[in-house]
TrEMBL record:
InterPro entries in alphabetical order: AB_hydrolase_fold, AXE1_dom, CE7
One Pfam family cited in the UniProt record for this chain: AXE1
Domain Acetyl xylan esterase: residue ranges: 17-331
Record-given protein name: Acetylxylan esterase
Organism, as annotated: Paractinoplanes ovalisporus
Lineage: Bacteria, Bacillati, Actinomycetota, Actinomycetes, Micromonosporales
Superkingdom assignment: Bacteria
């Protein structure tokens, strides 16, 4: 563990925080625990998914770009259901290349083929997974969430939340694990040099995959969502966490069942099982993913780890500076193409 990197406020400035101070974050520990059967639940879930051939299908997309080749990708995720992605690779690359598998923030999908060109421009094979049932909040998506309809608050946070077997994130996290399988199956990818990357919900996905796989070269989780649910539901009134609060306002008898389900999907519990080197980021004015929730997972993370802290920022975190830091980090862990 390399510790905490922070752009600290100048001495004497007023530090208006929305959560704990940096000193408190350094010693904070989550109260979340792994439920009985956690490992068995996920082993069975992934074993069921593995019964379906990954069935990766590529179709080149004409984008007009000269330096990047882009492919529409389809593969089989949870229960063999079709999941979309983009694959972007440096044009005329001979491979095999180090690969970045990227997951998307809440409400977003894989976006447009001309978006998100950083990783391929840097020489990586870049697989950007679509997000089932989302992709209409702020970026395009095409993947359906094939699941029985149940009462829920608008959004996906409470979809199937009364049982781990039916909860939305069981399907999404399984898709995320299978996206790594899809990337590793490609001739253009060096299967020994695959990293996962994401911010917010995408960071939560990255932590889940890190806890469920032992073959990752690196993990990057910017201001990760879906971490330390017990803390998040006490300290923030921001969405998407507030979807769960809104649900429990109405479904008063279901508090225990909801919290039990969330134990199976908490980044804290995945982090404790992870071993790949990881880079986190947190922002001290983040009301969407409060920094204490990020540190809840960071402190439990089982592999080598470091974290960037942004004292003046909200949920945007370090923005382009996070990406710049991640590029250096992944170059060090994955090497050049």
């Amino acid at each position: 563990m390399r510790g905490i990197t922070s752009c600290r406020p100048r001495e004497g400035t007023i530090d208006l925080l929305t959560d704990l101070s940096e000193d408190q974050l350094a010693t904070y520990r989550s109260t979340q625990t792994a439920p009985d059967g956690f490992d068995e639940f996920w082993a069975e879930t992934l074993a069921e998914a593995a019964k379906h051939d990954i069935d990766v299908r590529l179709s080149e997309v004409e984008t007009g770009l000269e330096t990047i080749s882009t492919y529409d990708v389809r593969f089989r995720g949870f229960s063999g259901q079709e999941v979309a992605a983009w694959l972007r690779v440096p044009a005329h690359a001979t491979g095999p290349l180090p690969a970045v598998v990227q997951y998307v923030g809440y409400g977003g999908g894989r976006g447009h083929a001309l978006e998100n060109l950083l990783w391929a421009s840097a020489g990586f094979a870049h697989l950007q997974m679509d997000t089932r049932g989302q992709g209409s909040g702020w970026s395009l998506g095409v993947t359906a969430d094939e699941a029985p309809a149940q009462p829920q608050v608008p959004g996906v946070m409470t979809r199937g939340i009364l049982d781990p077997a039916t909860y939305y994130y069981r399907r999404m996290f399984t898709d995320a694990v299978r996206a790594v399988d899809a990337a590793r199956s490609l001739d253009t990818v060096d299967s020994s040099r695959v990293a996962v990357v994401g911010g917010s919900q995408g960071g939560g996905n990255a932590l889940a995959v890190a806890g469920l796989r032992s073959d990752l070269a690196a993990v990057v989780a910017f201001v990760p969502f879906l971490s330390d649910f017990p803390r998040a539901l006490r300290v923030t009134e921001s969405y998407p966490y507030k979807e769960i609060i809104d649900y429990l306002v109405v479904h008063r008898p279901d508090v225990e069942a909801v919290h039990r389900t969330l134990q199976f999907f908490d980044g804290v519990n995945f982090a404790a099982r992870a071993t790949a080197p990881a880079l986190f980021s947190a922002a001290l004015r983040d009301t969407v993913c409060p920094p204490s929730t990020v540190f809840g997972s960071f402190h439990e993370y089982g592999g080598e780890k470091e974290i960037e802290v942004w004292p003046y920022n909200g949920h945007e975190g370090g923005g382009i500076f996070d990406e710049e830091r991640a590029l250096r980090f992944l170059r060090g862990r994955l090497g050049d193409a």
